[in-house]
Amino acid sequence: MMNMRGGCSLQVSILASGSKGNSVYVELDGVRLLVDAGISAARITKGLRARGVEPQSLDAVLVTHEHIDHIRAVGTISRRYGIPIYGTLATLRETLLSKSLGDFDRGLLHPILPDQSIRIASLEILPFSIDHDAADPVAYRVRSGEKCAAVTTDLGHFDDYICGHLRDLDAVLIEANHDPRMLADGPYPLPLKRRILSDKGHLSNEISGKLIDTILHPGLKHIFLGHLSEENNLPELALRTVREVIDRSESGNRSEGLSISVAKRHVVSEIIEF
Fold first, then answer.
1. 10-16 and 23-28 as β-strands: parallel, antiparallel, unpaired?
2. Backbone angles phi, psi at 11, to 5 degrees
3. Could you give phi then psi for residue 36, rounded to 5 degrees?
4. pLDDT attached to residue 103
5. Whole-number pLDDT of residue 23
6. Given this model, what pLDDT does residue 8 score?
């Protein structure tokens, strides 16, 4: 792995992904990003250092939305190391109202707009809207030259707009949140089950497979399945279901040979680099 700045490789490592906490490290063209900081600052620091990355070397934290499993340590990381925070205006406002940021320099906040690219050093970062029960949630597409990755979770459904933003990627994180039968039989109260199943909830394993089948192309080098529910899913079930959906689709795609793995909740994932 290349740890020195200035490299042109793309690196993606999932520090944590699940209903209780999410954080993704992306390095491209020597620029270091954290997408969400929904676990403790200590876990983020440990995960980064396991990859040879010091947290103070981060160039930005990109926030998808204001739910606590995505912003838990945003304030701590930003205050401690002076890291800029990017998010939509509504997301930043709700994050401030939640008191999650604490007392820190608001000059570190950088409002963004969906479908308007921003530049961080050599990277072009495109936030795009997703449907979720949050103020103004987005996913992110990160590009430099010919290399491109995206982080896309917490979306209750997908459409042509979403697929258009997930074309021609090298690597992607897509949620496979739940198995509908496990959710139906599980302990969650009925209103919460309905929220998860709604168009502003989360993708099931099967819908995740359909989305992946739609965006597959020969250059897609790795797929992470993320944001798995601890109560309503199993890693092996998510992976099997996604592969089965691809194999039985009418697209002609096949899952054999496809590099796909399940992002872990409590353990840093393998690093993908190319």
1. antiparallel
2. -125, 135
3. 70, 155
4. 76
5. 97
6. 66
Tell me the average pLDDT of the chain. Answer: 93
State both tokens at 97: 């109202």
Q: Tokens for 194?
A: 């309905």
Taking the C-alpha atoms of residue 213 and residue 198, their distance in angstroms, rounded to an integer, is 21
The two structure tokens encoding residue 65: 């939305």
Sheet holding 123-129, edge to edge: 118-120, 123-129, 138-144, 147-152, 171-175, 222-226, 260-262
Q: Which residues of the chain have pLDDT under 70?
A: 1-8
Rounded CA-CA distance 66/96 in Å is 9
Q: Phi and psi (nearest 5°) for 235?
A: -55, -45
Note the maximum CA span of the chain: 54
pTM summary value: 0.94
pLDDT, residue 274, reads 83
What pLDDT score was predicted for residue 141? 98
The reported pLDDT for the residue numbered 7 is 55
